[in-house]
Amino acid sequence: MTGPRPAAVPDGRRAELAEGLAEVRARIAAACDAAGRDPGDVTLIAVTKTFPASDVRLLAGLGLTEVGENRDQEARPKAEACADLPLTWHFVGRLQTNKARAVAGYADVVHSVDRARLVTALSDAAGRAGRTLRCLVQVSLDEPPPQEGGGRGGAAPSAVPRLADAVAGAAHLELGGVMAVAPLGADPLPAFARLAEVAEAVRRDHPSATVLSAGMSGDLEEAVACGATHLRVGTALLGGRRAIVR
Ligand SMILES: *Cc1c(COP(=O)(O)O)cnc(C)c1O
What we know:
Blueprint: H1 11-35, E1 43-47, H2 53-61, E2 66-69, H3 72-81, E3 88-91, H4 100-106, E4 109-113, H5 116-128, E5 133-138, H6 160-169, E6 173-179, H7 188-205, E7 211-213, H8 220-225, E8 230-233, H9 235-238
Parallel strand pairs: 1-2, 1-8, 2-3, 3-4, 4-5, 5-6, 6-7
Helix pairs in contact: 4-5, 6-7
The structure holds pyridoxal-5'-phosphate (PLP).
C-alpha cells in the first residue's frame, strides 16, 4: 500500500531508492558473510547531502532510520522538514565551533569531533538545548598525521585518547566511539585496520564507546572487514551528487 505523495516527487524516485537500498543491503550482507559478522551489528546511515528532504522521506518510508548530513546550512532545514519522521540525525561533516549551537539543536550524533574546543562548544550548546549529544571522535588516517585543526579533519591517532576522555567527561555529551574517512587514493584496508586499533584502545578506557563509524560507498566492504558498526553511504544509495554551486 502506498500513501499519497507530494506531487514534486517523481514517481520513479521511490523505486530508484528502493533499488539502491537493496543493492547496498546486499553488499553489506555479503561483506558480513565474508567477515563472519552478523549484519544486525552493522547500521546503515544514509548520507543525504545535496539531496532533497523528499528523498529523506522516501528513505524513511523504505525503513531507513539513520540519516547523515555534512553541512549545517543544508541539514537544519532538512531536519526541520522531516521532524515528523522517526529519524536519527548524524552530523558527519567538519564542524566549526560557531555552528555547534545550531547543530546541537537537531543532530543526535556528531561524528566529527576532532579538537578540544569543539568538545566544549558542543557540550555547552547541548546543555542550553536541554539535550545530550552522542559524539564520536574523528580519527585522521592520513600519513603524516595532521596538526590540530589541520588537514581534512580528524585528530591524529595519538590525540584521540585525550579527546575521548574530554567527551566522556563533558556534562552534556556522551562518548559513542570513533569515526574516520579513508585517506584519499590509499588502500582503505590498512587504514581501517589502524582505525580498529584506535577504536579498541578507546573502548578499553570507555567500554560503552562501541561505535566504529567507517566505510562509504566505495569502501564499505573493507570497513565491515575491520569491524565497522556504522556505514555512511551516500552515492550508492541515492545516486551521484551534482557539484554544489553555492
Ligand atoms: C559524503 C560523505 C559520505 C558518503 O560518501 P559516499 O561516497 O557518497 O557514500 C560519508 N562520510 C562523510 C563524512 C561524507 O562527507
